[in-house]
């Protein structure tokens, strides 16, 4: 395993840069040069880094620095991690600067969530290109262990194996090796689901829209956070960057589900980017007396209103049975109920299975990768585990053919379903009785 004693994190004032610096300093026990444009902002970020890993002792490992010190910091480092803006020009410019001073033994990584690793690697001197990788961690990395490791055509395979071992054994990452493809695997699967949910919110805006769809796809369907709430948490601008990249650079059967709805584009133009800006799909209103209430965007009016406590009989029954530990009855209720809301829920869960299988054949190296990325990157019940859950009450291939006829026409469904394997994850850990 490679010996990483000193790390340089470039772009440490951003959320992911700060959190990743904390992982290297705590789990990796490395000295970490924390680089940003403004050293005063970097110094103010240090307490946030410490807090992100709940380890006060790492403060001594965190060395603030600005970009005027980049060459010195990189030259002293065994590993360089770039976490700059999700912009190919910014990343290639940094790659050239790093490549000019990177030591021959050192590893260089980018934390991009979907830009071309090979294109960035080509900016390094020829002899160093083999030491450059995509190392995409998920937020927050302290609790989300997924790390997508992406090689390039230049990759030194010995270095790749050593880096994988370091990430797994030293940083305690769940490492999934993926191909250099837009958004890689976790975001390809996750944002297909989330963006289609946004499209359904627009389609069913007269039924309630955003909170209507989130209620249909709540925690009782196997995810820790409803999909549109997740988009607000990630940031609508980040969401747009991910789905636009996938739409522009791929062309699979789900291509149209990556089109960003107009109402989301308008929110972005209004700087309503989600939780980080105080308003997005949802808005939390605080009062002087300390009370607060959650509001949601009404797509029809463009105004915020109170979240509606929807009552869907199929969902209430599922929650009741899940609370009692009777998962078979819960899934029977989902499979056999034919209300509009149950139909929507089935559509999403079944297509989640199919698209996960499809994307993993394209982007991954083994079908189990679909489960790893969704369980450890999104905290969603992974697709093979959902397949198992539904198999307790129905023939899943038949369910898919009945509920997704258009998908079955576009995708080679027989070939995809032949890839299904037993999941190592227990679906009961993900289906919750709350909203």
Overview of the structural elements:
With 435 residues, the protein is an alpha/beta fold. 46% of the residues lie in helices and 12% in strands. The longest helix is centred in the C-terminal third of the chain and has 24 residues, at 340-363.
Question: Can you tag this structure with a few keywords?
Answer:
435 residues; 46% helix; alpha/beta; 11 strands; 3-stranded antiparallel sheet; globular
Helix/strand/pairing category:
alpha/beta
* Percent of residues in helices: 40-55%
Strand content: 5-15%
What is the arithmetic mean of pLDDT? 95
- Biggest sheet strand line-up: 3-2-1-4-5-6-7-8
Number of helices: 19
Largest sheet: 8 strands, mixed
Terminal Cα separation, in Å? 44 Å
Number of strands: 11
Reconstruct the topology from this structure.
Blueprint: E1 6-10, H1 15-26, E2 31-36, H2 39-52, E3 62-66, H3 70-75, E4 79-82, H4 88-99, E5 107-110, H5 117-121, E6 132-137, E7 146-150, H6 157-169, E8 174-177, H7 186-203, H8 210-216, H9 227-234, H10 236-249, H11 262-269, E9 282-286, E10 292-297, E11 304-306, H12 313-324, H13 327-336, H14 340-363, H15 368-377, H16 383-391, H17 396-403, H18 405-410, H19 413-417
Parallel strand pairs: 1-2, 1-4, 2-3, 4-5, 5-6, 7-8
Antiparallel strand pairs: 6-7, 9-10, 10-11
């Amino acid at each position: 395993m490679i010996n990483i004693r000193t790390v340089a994190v470039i772009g440490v004032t951003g959320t992911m840069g700060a959190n990743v610096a904390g992982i290297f300093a705590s789990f990796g026990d490395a000295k970490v040069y924390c680089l940003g444009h403004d050293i005063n902002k970097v110094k103010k970020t240090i307490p946030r880094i410490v807090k992100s890993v709940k380890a006060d002792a790492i403060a001594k490992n965190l060395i603030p620095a600005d970009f005027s010190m980049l060459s010195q910091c990189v030259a002293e480092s065994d590993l360089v991690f770039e976490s700059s803006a999700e912009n190919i020009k910014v990343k290639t410019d940094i790659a050239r600067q790093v490549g000019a001073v990177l030591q021959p033994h050192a590893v260089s990584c980018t934390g991009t969530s979907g830009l071309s690793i090979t294109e960035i690697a080509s900016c390094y001197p020829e002899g160093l290109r083999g030491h450059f990788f995509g190392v995409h961690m998920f937020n927050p990395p302290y609790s989300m262990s997924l790390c997508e490791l992406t090689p390039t055509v230049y990759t030194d395979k010995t270095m790749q194996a050593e880096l994988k071992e370091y990430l797994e054994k030293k940083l305690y990452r769940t490492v999934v090796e993926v191909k250099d493809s837009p958004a890689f695997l976790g975001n390809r699967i996750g944002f297909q689901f989330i963006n289609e949910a946004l499209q359904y919110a627009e389609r069913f805006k007269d039924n309630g829209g955003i909170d209507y769809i989130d209620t249909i796809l709540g925690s009782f369907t196997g995810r820790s956070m409803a999909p549109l709430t997740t988009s607000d948490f990630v940031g609508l601008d980040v969401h747009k960057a991910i789905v636009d990249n996938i739409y522009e650079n791929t062309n699979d059967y789900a291509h149209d589900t990556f089109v960003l709805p107009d109402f989301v584009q308008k929110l972005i133009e209004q700087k309503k980017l989600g939780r980080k800006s105080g308003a997005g799909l949802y808005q939390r209103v605080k009062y002087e007396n300390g009370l607060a209430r959650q509001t949601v965007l009404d797509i029809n009016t463009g105004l915020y209103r109170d979240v509606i406590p929807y009552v869907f009989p199929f969902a209430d029954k599922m929650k009741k049975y899940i609370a009692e530990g009777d998962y078979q009855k819960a899934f029977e209720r989902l499979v056999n109920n034919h209300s509009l809301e149950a139909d929507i829920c089935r559509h999403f869960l079944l297509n989640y299975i199919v698209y996960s299988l499809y994307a993993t054949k394209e982007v991954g190296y083994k079908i189990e990768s679909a489960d790893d990325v969704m369980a450890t990157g999104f905290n969603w019940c992974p697709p093979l585990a959902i397949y198992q859950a539904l198999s307790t009450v129905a023939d899943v291939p038949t369910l898919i053919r009945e509920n997704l006829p258009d998908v079955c026409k576009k995708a080679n469904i027989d070939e995809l379903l032949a890839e299904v394997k037993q999941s190592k994850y227990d679906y009961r850990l993900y289906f919750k009785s709350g909203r």
